[in-house]
Design brief:
This protein is mainly α. The chain is built from six helices and no strands. α5 runs antiparallel to α6.
């Protein structure tokens, strides 16, 4: 996650008709629920194309072998926390993550 603070080259602007295809390596790392969650967040306007790419990049950079949806949610939180102007998106995902944790504890 160290690379988040130094990220200075966001992807170029994408058309609203752009389609994100995952590479084989990304599909091996990010299972169907993870990819669906990323696309869901982008569709809801929580992730921009730039923050989506940063999320995927940071998830791919993690060294643990058992990467799952819960870990991806934390990556999304870290990405949004480190992006200026993304406070509302961060709060939305934070509520989603912590609401799931509360529901599991009861």
């Amino acid at each position: 996650m160290e690379g988040l603070a130094s990220e200075s080259n966001p992807p170029t602007k994408q058309s609203e008709f752009s389609l994100r295809l995952f590479s084989n390596r990304e599909m091996d790392r990010l299972d169907t629920p993870c990819r669906g969650f990323i696309l869901f967040l982008e569709h809801m306007g929580v992730l921009t194309p730039a923050s989506r790419e940063l999320t995927i990049d940071r998830a791919m950079a993690l060294e643990n072998e058992d990467f799952d949806l819960d870990q991806l949610k934390w990556v999304v939180l870290m990405v949004l926390f480190n992006q200026p102007g993304e406070e509302a998106a961060y709060a939305w995902v934070e509520d989603l993550v912590f609401d799931n944790l509360t529901n599991r504890l009861h």
